[in-house]
Amino acid sequence: MKNLIAAISIFGLSLTHISAQDIHQNEVPSVILNNFQKSFPKAADTDWEIKRNLYEVEFETGFLGDDHKVLYSRDGKLVRHEEEISKGNLPKAVLASINKSFAGYRTDDLKKITEGRKVIYHVELKNISQEWKVVFDAQGRILEKRAD
């Protein structure tokens, strides 16, 4: 029984290793690295991984160290950009939707996610008794809402 548990554990760990692998920046293909450095010249504290068939880099920018996560395809195309933002950087339509549908809630963990030309906003909304994770489009429409 112990051998079976050990084998299952090793197998599970190997699957995790296959799906995401930390790599050093010098292992990143030059086309990806060049595009990253052009797009984010002030990036600091970079951390590279390969996830499935994409290169993921997490990094910080700005004085306060805003967090970013960017995914690149193998040919160097930026596939997805996720960035931490402040409430003041939300579109007015999103703020209006929050004020209408979540009056009395405070915002937390705000993210702007860009995939191609599509932009969405992930927002955690909290009050004394409830927490929601809500996804808005740029026009303030709620695309997804789930209790947290």
Q: Care to describe what's here?
A:
This protein is an alpha+beta fold and 148 residues long. The protein has a single domain, classed as Nuclear Transport Factor 2, Chain: A. It contains three helices and nine strands; from the N terminus they run αβαββββαββββ. It has helices at 2-19, 30-39, 92-101; strands spanning 20-23, 44-51, 54-61, 66-72, 78-84, 106-115, 118-126, 131-137, 142-147. A nine-stranded antiparallel beta sheet has the order 1-2-3-4-5-6-7-8-9. Strand 7 and strand 8 form a beta hairpin. It starts with a helix and ends with a strand. Mean pLDDT is 87; it is low at 1-18.
Spell out the blueprint of helices and strands.
Elements: H1 2-19, E1 20-23, H2 30-39, E2 44-51, E3 54-61, E4 66-72, E5 78-84, H3 92-101, E6 106-115, E7 118-126, E8 131-137, E9 142-147
Short summary:
The protein is 26% helix and 45% strand.
CATH fold assignment: Nuclear Transport Factor 2, Chain: A
Kindly estimate the percentage of residues that lie in beta strands according to DSSP: 35-45%
Apparent shape: elongated
The CATH class designation is: Alpha Beta
User: What's the number of structural domains?
Assistant: 1
> Biggest β-sheet: count, sense, barrel?
9 strands, antiparallel
Instruction: Note the total helix count.
Output: 3
Structural class category: alpha+beta
Pfam families: PepSY_like
Protein name: PepSY-like domain-containing protein
